[in-house]
Amino acid sequence: MKFETKAVHMGEEPNLKEGGSGDVVIPIHLSSTFARKKVEAPTQGYEYSRTGNPTRKALENRLASLEGAGYGLAFASGMAAENTLALTLLQTGDHLIAFDDLYGGTRRLFDRVFFKNFQVEASYVDARDPQKIRKAIRKNTRMIWLESPTNPLMNLCDIRAISRIAKEAHLLVVVDNTFMTPYFQNPLQLGADVVVHSTTKYLNGHSDSVGGALMLSDEKLYLQLKFNQNATGAILSPFDSFLVLRGIKTLAVRMKEHEKNGLRIARYLENHPRVRKVYYPGLKSHPQYDLAKKQMSGFGGMLSFEIDGGLKKADRFLGNLKLFALAESLGGVESLIEHPARMTHASVPPEVRKKVGITDSLIRISVGIENIDDLIEDLDQAFKKIA
Ligand SMILES: *Cc1c(COP(=O)(O)O)cnc(C)c1O
């Protein structure tokens, strides 16, 4: 079955068996508990909704099938998914290697929770060069945590090459695939072990639900994760599960539009005299354009750029926009714009921001699926006002 078909059908096959109602859309199962016929075992497989819920299960099956994984798990947020994974894989004294340009909340989880409470040490390396990962491996290294492209600088890492290095050293590779979605990138096929998503972003796609997911194929690890999901309890609600199931049905259609608009805006910005630099993997000027073409089947709708001028210019430009909402988050149908240094990446220490290149001139856009002419017109009038 092809991607678009799976996105519409997987996990939501109508129940036409005796007693089934044949719903084309799975019901939102709100029941917190499930009756059984005998004490020994749950009759229909469900006992209590933290442990398992039919609406969430439908979503988990769909998520697994989209990433080509054996198993999926849905959580209350992307961070809940990450936390459950980290709690499952890491113990006091362990070490992990991560890309030095990660989602700010991921770095905060490692530094301010796992390092502070459990002395789990993280080495942040420039994973654009796989050899830097190899050099950072220690005796107590347990996993490698990657994002590609990164947020907000759109740096890539070679997932296949790094996974090979990891296999030699018996390390797990985790890839946060939120930016690309399984429509444009399949980390498990490139050799990674676990995929992380914030379903809040493209998978749900309509900026009206916060959620997260893990997809993987190793049964032993899945059972451990499932145990910890139930033990720690940060599960996705039945209503949010329904929303994400619904959102995913149009994922393929939306991603094509996000990409089309993303590329147009990237090219527009690249030719604009008030723009110093554009970060978008679909531009030939992107230093890793060849890797992007090889590793991804599309370039997505996220980009960032450096405006010509500092904080004041950036503020005036952002204040002039009418269509782009000044807001954190990404991946919804509406276009959003933000200032990473003071918004999404404010929790990253200033010296780290400086080192990785998140300057005060940097602006990030999540390109929506509005008409491209309206989007460019809005950017145009905002630039003219600061000229
Ligand atoms: C938003 C995001 C997260 C965190 O997800 P939440 O749903 O906000 O908890 C993790 N990784 C990336 C790349 C994100 O964009």
Outline of this structure?
This protein is α/β, with parallel strands linked by helices. The chain has helices at residues 3-9, 54-67, 78-89, 104-118, 130-136, 159-168, 181-184, 219-232, 238-248, 251-270, 289-295, 311-320, 350-356, 372-386, and strands spanning 71-75, 95-99, 121-125, 141-147, 172-176, 194-198, 212-216, 275-279, 302-307, 325-326, 336-338, 362-366.
Care to count the β-strands?
12
Supply the number of structural domains: 2
CATH superfamily of the largest domain: Type I PLP-dependent aspartate aminotransferase-like (Major domain)
Q: Major sheet: order of its strands?
A: 1-7-6-5-4-2-3
> Can you count the helices?
14
- H/E series, N to C? HHEHEHEHEHEHEEHHHEHEHEEHEH
CA radius of gyration is: 21 Å
Mean pLDDT: 96
Based on Cα principal axes, name the global outline.
Answer: globular
Explain what you see.
- With 387 residues, the chain is of the alpha/beta class.
- It has two domains: 3-248, Type I PLP-dependent aspartate aminotransferase-like (Major domain) (Aspartate Aminotransferase, domain 2, 3-Layer(aba) Sandwich), CATH 3.40.640; 251-384, Aspartate Aminotransferase, domain 1 (Alpha-Beta Complex), CATH 3.90.1150.
- It has 14 helices and twelve strands.
- It has helices spanning 3-9, 54-67, 78-89, 104-118, 130-136, 159-168, 181-184, 219-232, 238-248, 251-270, 289-295, 311-320, 350-356, 372-386, and strands at 71-75, 95-99, 121-125, 141-147, 172-176, 194-198, 212-216, 275-279, 302-307, 325-326, 336-338, 362-366.
- The strands form two sheets. The protein has a seven-stranded mixed β-sheet with strand order 1-7-6-5-4-2-3, sandwiched between helices. Strands 8-9-12-11-10 form a five-stranded mixed β-sheet.
- Helix 5 (130-136) packs parallel to helix 6 and helix 12 (311-320) crosses helix 14.
- The protein binds pyridoxal-5'-phosphate.
- Pyridoxal-5'-phosphate (PLP) is lined by residues 77-79, 103, 105-106, 147, 151, 176, 178-179, 198, 200-201, 210, 212.
